[in-house]
Amino acid sequence: MNILTFDIEEWFHLLELPATSKPELWGNFEHRLEANTDRLLMLMDEMGVKATCFVLGWVAQEFPQVVKKLADAGHELGIHSYDHSLVFMQARRAFAEDIRKSCDLVSSISGKPVTMFRAPGFSIVESTLWAFEELVEQGITADSSVFPASRAHGGFPSFPTDQPCIIDVRGVRLYEFPLNTSKYLGTRMIFSGGGYFRLMPYQVIRNLSIGSKYIMTYFHPRDFDPGQKVLPGMSPYRIFKSYYGLGGSYNKLKHWLDEFEFIDMSTAIKRINWDEAIVIRI
After folding, report:
1. Of 144, 182, 213, 221, which is least surrounded by CB within 10 A?
2. pLDDT tens figures, 75-105
3. 2-281: which CATH number, 3.30.70.120, 3.20.20.370, 3.30.70.1120, 3.40.50.2000?
């Protein structure tokens, strides 16, 4: 089961970068989101595939036409916070308000309730289990915020599974879709999105895909935009991570979508036998 998802955010929405850390700074940068999203919409239409798109509330507010295009094309809309704030950097009340505001903005455009969420930077971690309670309180029924390994920001290496599971929040079910991991050269690793996907040769991705029963992707429109500029204040290592492979990533994704079946999260929920899934009670 391979699930296609995109985090709908601008090219400059990189985490923990002072030059782009606050919404009031975002007017200093060229907007490339609509053109990049249009290109992905054409690709998905060509390949006959639907995706789950986690939209920033800020994007819904500033570029409602982008959200409307996604909804009109039949793609599923979730939220990705309002302004790309990391969950573990927020107070619980602020997080709850962020979710409410983002859901209202996106649903006002699509005309449908929002029931899916992904945290920026996969920043629901062991110390913020309360976030699952707030998601359920706000009407979220499916989440994809768990990165079951260590990473620069976020990461939940103690999470007990890298497969779809159920988080039981005081008797209420929340479907959790963590990122999948695969063993490569003796190491458990992620390959299904972002810089990992851009870095790896397609043949490696293909082989790992064949050996995976479950794949959760996480792409961004910027992952397929070789024309974007380098943001100020980035180290050489960060530049490599954020810009390597942009020239070939679009064709790599097209090849992947052509060779393997991909579905959105709602379709996955219908296909999974949840009676066999791990239940995690918080």
Report:
1. 213
2. 999 999 999 999 999 999 999 999 999 999 9
3. 3.20.20.370
